[in-house]
Amino acid sequence: MSVRSALPEGRAARGALSGLAGALVGGLVFAALTAGGAAGASAATAADDTPAGTVAGAVTAKGYDPDWESSPFPNLAVTVSQTKGLVAQGLKVSWTGGTESTPPTQQSGGQNYLQIAQCWGDDPENPSRPDRTTCQYGAFGTPGATRDGNRTEGSVAASDAALTTTAAGALDPAYTSIPFRSATGDTIASVVDGRRVPGVDVNTNPFFTQYTSNEIPWAGTGADGTGSTKFEVQTVTQSRGLGCGARTSDDAAATSGASCWLVVIPRGTADTGESANVSSGLFADNWKHHLAVKLDFRPVGLRCAIGAAERQLAGSELISRAVSSWQPTLCAQDGGSVFTLLTGTESDATTAANAAAGDAPLALTSLPYSGPDEDRLVYAPIGLTSVTVGFAIDRFPAQDGSASEEALARARLPLTDMKLTPRLIAKLLTSSYLDSLPYQADRGHLGANPRNLLFDPDFRAINDPEWSQQAIAGVAVADMLLPQGRSDVATALWTYVMADPEAREFLAGTPDDWGMVVNPFASTTPEKNPTGTGLTLPRDSFPKPDPVEVAATPNGPAAINSVTWRPYTNDLDSAAYATLRGDGLVLSAWDPAGNPPRYSRSPRNLPGTQAVISLTDGAAAEKYQLVTAALRNPAGEFVLPTTEGLTAAASAMTASGSQPQVRSFAPATDEAARAAAAYPLAMPVYAAASPYLGDAGVRSVYADFMRYAADQGQVPGVETGQLPAGYAPLPDSWRVQARAAATALENGLTAAAPTPSAAPAGDTAGISSGALPAAGSTSAGGSSAAGGTSAGAAGSAPAAEATNPSASGAVAGALAGARTAADPDSGPLPAALPISLLAALIAAAVVLLIPRLPRRP
Which of 11, 227, 461, 685 has a CA 20 to 30 Å removed from the CA of 417? Predict the structure, then answer.
């Protein structure tokens, strides 16, 4: 007789199920831990083998220009920070072998400088070089930087003859015009068959203007012969005339779109036949010395199979660049989905996800759900990034004799370092500098405050002495470009500010050591705030509480208030983009001829005259190649948002009191005070979803997204599917938490059905196969006051009552846990106990179901 036959049949079945449950749970624990190690090792290996940075490009005059010996800079060598996998972004262009520049004037383009432009087409006579007629160039109309111009006798090269009219006397000189040939097939030309075409302007045309062109008419070189500048790369989305990145085939798997060129044109002391640089860089005598680097783009547009299921993600903008990188790989997988990210207020996204109603979106958030209901979400860490202060500020030394000769020699070159304290950030956020309010308004309530950050003795005291030699006036350095709306970013920044005693006292109304005072309308002290109510901080937005206004005039300019004067940006990305372009969103003149009449927009400031500060995020700052400020952390150190700074901050993050699954860098904690290497505005991003979602298919898709994001998606690189610059790879323990959260979500929870009588001993409310009980609820083997047992399959319809899987700590306790700054890096081991407890709870749930199996008579 077999052992099985010696047992009653029902007991045998229950015993088999119990053994199977044990095996499955043991497998879950082993898989979670070994996968953590394997995936972590795999990611580390991939990160070592795959360049985490970008593919740079380099070109030299000697290697490119056949006539390099007659070039203005025969030893010029140019390096471009990235040439592969480009999107609409910024590049750093740096060079050596130049000659010290002089700035442009109203009559001349300057001396010994470079011009930079983007071109789309190949020269038909030499396809290894760009065609000058395809360059986006000439929009600003400054001397030496137009596509056309009058020519002196004998200055027209043979290759320009067909594009030049014949001189008819001193009042009608020869005129040369380089047409623009668009990627759309259109051509804008003002000289055709040797005759000038009336009414055609090749510099301002349907394809680019001074408001849209990305060209740089003047990029200066320092006394040591070196220089650098940021350059905006445009795709077909920003410039249809260039068409860069446009899809060249219908192959959804294609990894490259239409390529383009980055072109550098050296300009010496004077053009041929002229006493200064006044002619176009596209004219043959200048163009022949150009240097060019090929740019390869990712294809623009969705690359997912038609008919792929669409799933919504909602919430944090901080993870948007990573999602954009992951998306093509995710949807290319078998049964892959198209993930549509709707960036917006994170608290709204978590509220929708927590309701678990219908096809609820996956919430992306840095803070836990904070609504009136219980928190039913599981949180998977998928990103580690930062909030940053980016800037584009070029030197403008004081002309009163206080600046050194060295400082004067570096005029118009970019400043590349900045330190900020919480108090300085508080000043920028509260319209406390004079120029942050309209010039014509009554600003008496700001007293004798400095006009902007750069004149503030508080700022100059902690920054390089060179800042003290500058006389940079500008509205866009009297505050920061700020995003509109509510966000976790605002909460984190205000929390950082309010944790600092100096900043807190300043906001309360105490003058700083130099006598500067907070704008009283932003004071947190009711008695000092003219409204009688103190500004409540921290908060999840960036208010402009000053009611200052320049009144409208009859039949004239409209009123100007604080928002008209300093408008919000749409988001963090647009703030970074404006900074790259030197666009401080500065109000310009009233345009009575507008439809409707309105204030016009000021063109961006070109490199050499830029002065913009913005609040953005680490990924956007990297995308647009912004210089970022070092912030003072609670340990008193000034730290940049590097991978090392983010990783150090992650080690010092502490769990939220309301939701232990969610951690943050809390500046008021002892852990933060000990973390000397930590960047203080490091931000985790979580994918949060409710295991009570009724659709098992949706839960499975979101779980797969969590797993990919936390594992394969953490390999740094510029290719699709990889982790873009601006993010730090997740710590191993965070990855283990993400996998556990994905498993909990995929298995799901079923709401407990109410029962009319007490449940049998051993039943547990709210637990289905593979579900997670709430901490504080009945332990395995105990009884449940709520009564009832749900043995339905995951994904069944919710019943009247439900057990909260996280607020009181069951899922939270199992999924939370990250080491402190003092802990060694032990990989996935910190999660071994939580995962084991999680497995035990799953086993208990399964075993509890065994007595409910039907018994044969």
Answer: 685
